[in-house]
Amino acid sequence: MNLVLQGPQASQDVLQSLAAPARPARSVSLSSGALRCEDVDAAADVVEAVQAAALAAQVDATFIEAGRSLSDFSLVAMDMDSTLITIECIDEIADMQGLKAQVSEITEAAMRGELDFAASLTRRVALLEGLEASALERVYAERLRLSPGAETMLAAVQAAGLKTLLVSGGFTFFTDRLKPRLGLDYTHANVLETENGRLTGRVLGGIVDAEEKMRTVQRVCAELGVPTSRAIVMGDGANDLKMMGVSGLSVAFRAKPVVRAQADVALNFSGLDGVLAVLA
């Protein structure tokens, strides 16, 4: 096993000290803030101790089988809201109605896994009834920002020949704009219904929930002719767990505790490009 330690503010000395309990046979500096430790002790108590100390030091610690690289994968599948981008689009849309606090509370509970996602989305979208559709363009132009490291990560995986999928419980208004902007291969999201230039408070067709996200990853892998074990899946909320569960490498990005606990890689402090160090 290898141990990859990385933190935006971490020095090599700090990373070396965090690695010490795992007794690495050798270490390789990957960058000023990233260190790969090879042939480490990965006993459960060691892993727990290293990860706890790393978390306290604001460093991401990943234990991973030696030799894994981007070439082991064919697809990177990403959640959108709070993963590829920094915002929850529905919360920002609701802000245009003066309802951000109310909608954000429902969003947070759904992401923690405390509410059924489809039911919670239906409730949240209903609150948007009557809002001018132009508000969506304002959210995209004024508030939507890519997460740290997103463009670096995408450039690297695309250069390595991997396909990209953006699968979201959010809305096609945003995924349709991000697809050409970022050169993504596939996108799938919910469709907001509009009439006479205003939102009706309804979603057209089926809702992209946890099951549909998982099925989408499976469909795209089948189209590519590869098993889902050749997919890297990134997410932050409970509705991402099922698609993460069928992947070959699951990445929790600034994620809820229930997601971090089940992921292969947890990036709490690094950008999305932190996955590149893990697979270096």
TrEMBL record:
Question: Which cofactors, by name?
Answer: Mg(2+)
Tell me which UniProt keywords the record has, alphabetically: Amino-acid biosynthesis, Hydrolase, Magnesium, Metal-binding, Serine biosynthesis
EC top class named in words? hydrolase
Task: Report the domain of life of the source organism.
Answer: Bacteria
Which pathway does it operate in? Amino-acid biosynthesis; L-serine biosynthesis; L-serine from 3-phospho-D-glycerate: step 3/3
What EC number(s) has UniProt assigned to this enzyme? 3.1.3.3
Task: Please list the GO terms describing molecular function.
Answer: hydrolase activity
Chemical reaction(s) catalysed:
O-phospho-D-serine + H2O = D-serine + phosphate; O-phospho-L-serine + H2O = L-serine + phosphate
**Family under the similarity heading:** Belongs to the HAD-like hydrolase superfamily. SerB family.
- What is the protein named? Phosphoserine phosphatase
Q: Native species of this protein? A: Massilia suwonensis
